[in-house]
Amino acid sequence: MLKNQIARTILGRLGRALSVGFWVMVISFAIMRIIPGDPASARLGGVEAEAIAQLRKQLNLDGSIFQQFSRYVTDLLHGNLGISLQTGRTVIDIIGSTLPLTIYLILFSTFFAVILSIPIGTSIAWSGKAPIVYTFRGITAVILATPNFFIAMVGILIFTVRVNWSPVFGYEPEFPQNLKYLWLPVVVNTLIMTSVVSRVIFSSVIETKEEEFVETGIIRGVGRRRFFWFYILKPSMAPTVVLLSYMMGTMLGATVILETIFTLPGIGREMVNAVLTSDYPVVQGILLIFGVITVFLSFVGDVIAYLLDRRVKI
Amino acid sequence: MSGNHLLEIKNLKIDVRVTKKRRLSIVDTASLIIEPGQIIGLIGESGSGKTMLCRSLVGTLGRRGAYIASGQLKFDGIDLISAKQSVWNEIRGKRIGYVPQSALAGPNPVMTIGAQLAEAILQDENFPKADLEKRSLELLNIVQIRRPETVLKQYQHELSGGMKQRVMIACAIAQQPQLIVADEPTTGLDVTVQAEIMELLKQIRKDFNTSIILVSHDLPLINEICDDTVVMHAGTTVEKIPSKSIKASKHPYTLALYNSRIDLVVPKGQLKTINGQPPSVGSWPEGCRFSERCDFVKDKCRVKQDLPLITIGTSHETSCLRYDEIAR
Amino acid sequence: MKTRFVKFKEWLLLPGGFGIFTGMLMLGTMILLGIIIPNFGPYKPDEFIGDPFLPPSWQHPFGLDQLGRDVMTRTFSSVGIDLGVAFLGVSIPLAIGTVIGILLGLAKNKYVISLVGSLIDGINAFPLLIIAVAMLTFLGSGLRSVVVILAITNWARYARISRTRAVVVSKQNYIEAAKTLGFSKRRIVMKHIAPNVSSETVAYALSDFILVIVVVSGLSFLGLAAKPPMAEWGSMIADGRAYLAQSWWLVIFPGLALCWSAVSLSFVVEGISRRDRGV
């Protein structure tokens, strides 16, 4: 009965994720079509009608909207996201070659952010001393309100211009050399993420701390270590995990800027290049991938939160 | 008076830090004695300081910025006021069990009931791990939980209010403590469930000779099962009286509490209520703190000192100055 | 006079009062400088007045940029553009989203509810910056496109909040009571539901303002919103990037102004939320 309930809840959430996923697909499809004017003629300018018709066909813009959509879905199911107008590579190939770097960037930042946030958030919440709390709130508020590109610029100014610890631009994909290029972007992302995550851990520990069961735990004589894990951290974790999954999505969006600054060949910079060169199929494909990843992340985040704390409604 | 009592509270004063300099007394001159195997009811309106008095018995005043300012607090001869962490570790969960307020709490939401029971059982470091499940089931049987095997694997939100409270009691009695502190254990539960929980506590006292402090604001409920009832008003204990002679109370406040029972109302009669609101913390009147609300008040009640408890019979003490004049 | 001062002091000491006050003061200063310096200052934002890359001095506290324009004048002429675009980018979606959310919360037609509801979820699934970048491809870059795009996409976040709130409020007892008393539906919506819902969406709008400022300047930084020679923080930072090693003032001053505005708003937001919670 118990197992069943868990399975049912998770399946229900999966159903919602799939329906949002469907809409993500519809939006990626629609984005090229809802805007007034014809993207094909806009791109080609005043050339002859034949070339425009050719491009319309290539962009899946001919025929009725239903035909277009059914072709779009069929192609998707075959793993066909179209072909880049700029380079002639398939979009799926472009995504495949640029996405991993972006994912590493985010995973590393998340990892470090979590490792830093747990001790910072819990210890400040537990001590509860007003001056420390105000300082903490103030510093994180400033970091959060600062755009990532400005933080990145200051980072470059310090670590590249003043003390040449990081190259100005470029990238080498091989393992030990790439760290030289990656560490600064990871630090910038980590800094931002730590501010958000530690704030959430902070406020959720503050909330947990006031709960009666915590008092009961103390009185029961639960050992220090066990008390920390099961009475403070675990009950506070569910909101943190939900936020973390959301933040990873936001960070994914922010890589568009970060990868441009650090000239990293990730999917974000690829998207900006595609936008600047009006490479419609690439923009559309990357948008879809971003949407799908975000939906997936929020599904996983909700499920983990639910498994940590069954009171969570997902 | 020696260390023979299980618990001895004498003129206890608990202060809370409001700001850096400002202090507020929330309990002032509270006195209470519990013998082994006794059930004592601690009753009073909200804000009378009963919860804080309970917290002082389990050493968690500090969490609320409160501390014991003066007085005596002895548990089985051990001074709890100066107790260090190591002393508390030997007492909490082992010799003093705690049942929290039911309305707010319940078991830890992120641990199974089984895990929490295990925690309580393993407070005894020498307990053989092999017997853990057996002992868990045994405890759940004592608190009369049906299908204990299933409950062990469940989380608190899957249990009803009464079940949660039974689990909390099971945890509290795991080490067979000498004293159980139950802070409003039945508030917010159905009336029938309340009666069941009370019956359970009574059974536990009978089987294990455990003393119980039962906090409540419901005098009739408490009166059913307690040996003695201690009445608190505005941070002080105003009367201690054997439950069976509650009607012979000599304190107007106790009488007022007793008379405000709904079931005493004759059909179409009027429900008696207590005049006014309890005085708020920090603005207690001098002398008798009930004087503002009392029907029997005389000038001498407003003396400029705290009123001590006067012994007027076998385990009957009152702080009312006019106890001998008050006829029912 | 004195009582007013005392009243203000009491207000300030309430939870969050200090944050709200500091934030407003910071924001007010920025707006004031944004009005004074470009209009009454000695230079124009796109006037060439001296040697390129002149470091900060008494005469030019923020220095001169790569074309010899006064960085201080440019930084403060951006105030109106950045805050203005962000204001439009917040207030239009706020209005659209709140209305759609209320209508959806009160709607009876199941198909409409699930269709619009999933559309909202779908739009919200994308990070704002990403969907904005993608739409700019088709709409063409520029500040006007940015405002249009924010109107098209950002309403969904408000609609979600407004809908949830409208559902909660419409189930409340006093609404039921008003219905039984025979008040017209229009009156119930306008008098009870709308104020209740909008107080929530407006509160979100304040924090969204920060996000939108960052998104707008971020898009300009990528070269997709404000275009040179227009003075705008994001594009000034992007322009200065190439000369970062020699002339840090090209990047740092517009960046600080951007930070200053966002931080001031975040102080206000935090102050208000603390006041609501009373801690």
UniProtKB/TrEMBL annotation, chain A:
Compartments (UniProt record): Cell membrane
GO cellular component term, pick one: plasma membrane
Keyword Mitochondrion: no
Primary location: membrane
Species whose genome carries this gene: freshwater metagenome
Listed SUPFAM superfamilies: MetI-like
GO biological process: transmembrane transport
Positions in coiled-coil regions: none
InterPro entries listed in its UniProt record: BPD_transp_1_N (IPR045621), MetI-like (IPR000515), MetI-like_sf (IPR035906)
Transmembrane domains' residue ranges: 14-35, 103-126, 138-161, 181-202, 282-308
Keyword terms: Cell membrane, Membrane, Transmembrane, Transmembrane helix, Transport
ABC transmembrane type-1 domain segment(s): 99-301
Pfam family, one: BPD_transp_1
Membrane topology of this protein: Multi-pass membrane protein
Official protein name in the record: Unannotated protein
Keyword Isomerase attached: no
From TrEMBL, chain C:
Keyword check for Transmembrane helix: yes
Keywords: Cell membrane, Membrane, Transmembrane, Transmembrane helix, Transport
Membrane topology annotation: Multi-pass membrane protein
Transmembrane regions: 12-37, 83-104, 111-132, 138-156, 201-226, 246-269
ABC transmembrane type-1 domain segment(s): 79-269
Primary localization: membrane
A cellular component annotation (GO) from this entry: plasma membrane
Keyword Magnesium: no
GO biological process terms, semicolon-separated: transmembrane transport
Subcellular localization(s) per the UniProt record: Cell membrane
Protein name in UniProt: Unannotated protein
